[in-house]
Amino acid sequence: TFFKLPSDSFKYLSWCDIEEHDVRGNQLHCPRVREAGPSKEELFFRGEELTLKKRKEVTDTEKWQKKLQENWENCAELNLSFQDLGDLYQVENFKRILQRLIRVEKLWLVDNSLTDLSAIRLPRCRELNVNKNHFTSFKQLPKTPQIQHLSLAENNIRTLCGISDFRHTPLESLILKRNPCEFQERYRQLVFSSLPNLKMLDGIPKLPEDSPPPDVKFFFKMCTIL
């Protein structure tokens, strides 16, 4: 038998819809970005039409005022972790917000069950934390040409394929702890050889043994037969 939690009737409500306040989106430490919920038709087919009260019709003016109030375009530091993105409409709204973060420099997206943000571009982002998500490849990460610090701990990245895409970025620090690729043979050497500018991996500075071994062919060319 399936038992609903006491909070089930509130799962589509948005706590940040507070009237008559001057707080903007970039002033919230960890805002929710979900919308009010699925359409009435979708709720009907789910059998949940009674879980949500009739919504107030929102005018275009009110929508525009709310968009200005959010002010995502001017965010410099933003924490959108633990969003509990359980429905497709929540994920889509979340990505719409990310596309508006044209000035964000520090962004935390921890534990959001994210799988693919390759369509997102964060032109000014220097620090990105996407720990505890479901990424399986570096190709699924957002475009971050100015990235300096990237944390990918506790994802599902199995190989280092695609890591060279960060070769032409100012990336200095990378965290890949608790990903399957961490158990790859010569893991640290491979990462540092792919990212020559990298200074720290998994919280440990680059060590002499992290440098890739000299090319064996080079020694063959230089040997002298007496």
From TrEMBL:
Domain of life: Eukaryota
InterPro entries in alphabetical order: LRR_dom_sf (IPR032675)
Protein keywords: Leucine-rich repeat, Repeat
Organism of derivation: Podilymbus podiceps (Pied-billed grebe)
Descriptive protein name: TILB protein
Regions crossing the membrane: none
Keyword field contains Transport: no
